[in-house]
Each structure stands twice: as C-alpha cells, then as structure tokens.
Amino acid sequence: MGHHQLNDLNVVSTGVLITPQELKKKIPLTSLAENSVAKGRDEIRKILDRKDHRLIIVLGPCSIHDPKAALEYGQKLQELSLKVQDSLLLVMRTYFEKPRTTTGWKGLINDPYLNDTFKIDEGLEMARSLLMELAASGLPLGTEALDPITPQYLQDIISWSAIGARTTESQTHREMASGLSGTIGFKNGTDGSISIALNALKSASAPHRFLGINPEGQVAVIHTKGNKYGHIVLRGGNDKPNYDSVNITLCENQLTKSKLPVNIMVDCSHANSNKDPSLQPLVLKNISNQIKDGNKSIIGVMLESNLESGNQSICENIKDLRYGVSITDGCIDWKTTEGAILELRDEIGSTLIKRN
Fold it and tell me: Residue 265: helix, strand or coil by DSSP?
C-alpha cells in the first residue's frame, strides 16, 4: 500500500455544528411565533390561490447584519402593516445568507461578527433568536434559501422563501424547494431569461429524493412530495428591466404555455431599478398603474428597504458602521418606504378588491 494522502488535501479543518434539533431545543418556537408563521403561510397561499385579494409586499434590508436595527425596522413594519392590512400583506425580508459572485461577506449566519471569524454556530443562534422575536410580533417573515443545510435550523419560522437568480438553475436548490413548508419564489436568471425559473417551478412542484440532513444532524435521504406554491419573481437581467407591461404579458403567456399558475412577483430592485435603490418607488408606481389598468397576474412586489438609505462598506472597526445602513445592496430609507407603501394602498386598494 502506498503512502499518498488522498483525502482533504485542501481542507484546513472541520468542526462539529450544533444539530437542528439541539438549536430548536435551545431556542424553541413560542406559541406566538408558531401562530404568526401559520397565519402568514396561510395568507400567502390564499393570495396565490386568489382567495385573498391583497398584494404581497416583501420588504426589508438587503441583508441583516445588525439584529438591533432589524428589530427596530420590524417594529416600524408591524405598525405600518396594521395600517394597510386591508389591501397589502407585508412580509419582512430576513436575509441571512448572501450569494457572492466571487468573494465577500456571506451573511450573518456565516460571519456574524463581520470579521472573517466565521462563527457559524453563533450566527445560526443569532438568526433564530431574531426570527423568533420578529415572528412573535405578528410579522410574516421571508428569506433567501441559499445553503441546503440551514432550512433545518430556521425554516419553521419562515412564511415565504426566495431562490435567487444565481441558484434558480441549481438542481440542489430545486430539490430543496420541493420540500420547503412555505411558499417559494424563483427569480429569473441573471441574464433576464425566465425559462430557467419556469423549469425550476416545474421541478420544485414534483417529488424528489436527495441527500440532506435530518433534525438530528445525520446525513439522510430526503423524500419530498413537491411544493405546489411556487411563483416567479421578475428582477430584470443584463442591465435591462422586465417589469413593464410587455414583459409581464410575455411572462403570463409563458406561464400559461407551461401549464403553471399565472402568479408573478416583481422585484423592484436589481436590474429593474438599474441597481439604483432610489428608483424602486418609480418601479412600484408602474406596477400600481398596471394593476389599476386591469392586470390580474401580479400577486406581489419586493423592495430593498432599511432604516436609512444607501449602503456602506464594512470597515475595520465595526463600531464605526452607520446604524441602519445596509452593508450589501443599497436600500431606500424608512420614510421613503412608508410613503411608497401608503400611496400604493391608496392607489390600488379598491382595485384589488374588485379584481379577484
């Protein structure tokens, strides 16, 4: 027998992570949070089934790096949701994982202290604690399902999930989505193509068997029955928007041709706003006008919003970061957010009641 090392040539170390079951025991689901999640999931499903006339609004920070600021945002959002609940269902973005084109900060779960220490165990605990507190306030919560392992730790507190443009084509993420308990939005590809998302919707609605982990943290064969509550999210691509009425109609036709439910959500950020967060309210205004003009396929929108506008880079001294300002994509501030949501309610509230 030779003396060649064949395994783990590029692995520096491995560490055992707390199991999903152990984390849930440490931070158990409260009755308030449980009722909030169940209610949020049911309301979103009813909107997709056209049994609820409201529009879904998924809004919040591009990514959460400061739990304190996220809680303050959540409190403001909860108060706003009560004012618009007759027309709009507000779902808070609670994004803890960020896909990177090359390298960069990968989110609160991977690097909770923003200093490349990668204390993932503490990141998971921070994320679950924050989700629990937000859910207990009555807010439905949304996130991006990026890593195929983390759903076992957090998805019991999530009402809506997204599969991002970079991962919509991934077989792993389509299989994972087929087993998620909440509704799921697939974004179109980064090139703007919707065919990738259509294929993803078909795949995720079907049963799958794949490798994953069980609540005890063991490697397991996961058997899913398929997730029937998927929809497409248009976010533009190749520096071109796809939220206009022509692109919406083309998407409707493709969904019908593919024998998929004609449910469309529009992401007001990314290429749809030319990566300029200040343009998001203008995109939202366009969607409002389409709904007033008779559109019945748009069931929701997404907004990147924070306490303060813009974004900032991670600095050497984390204490120097500006409070309430994104460290990833730029966002609109709370004042702009509140004004846009109230205006949207006033503009389309009566139309939404009639269109179903």
Answer: strand
